[in-house]
Amino acid sequence: MQEIIMTPDVCMRFLVWSYYYHDIRPAKNISYKECGKFSDADAAHLDELKEMLFKCFEEDSVERACDQFYKAKMLQEPCPFPQTELDMMFAKELEP
Fold this sequence. Notes:
Blueprint lengths: L7 H14 L18 H17 L2 H16 L8 H7 L7
């Protein structure tokens, strides 16, 4: 997987991918392995991205962004990023 630099744009895409599309609200002390939706390798990579996210942005900012994505989802507002594009950028869920 290529290295990803946590810019504000990548942060927004990561949060949209995680919370809007996969219903996983990033939290400092919870690993992506715990959700059981991704391979171990993908979960480890996602945890690295999450750590970068919280190093670059305050926890309150991440929480507020997730709250906005939740409202957008409840109002069924269209997402500016297609899920397939974000899945290719971050990770795809395991097949059931």
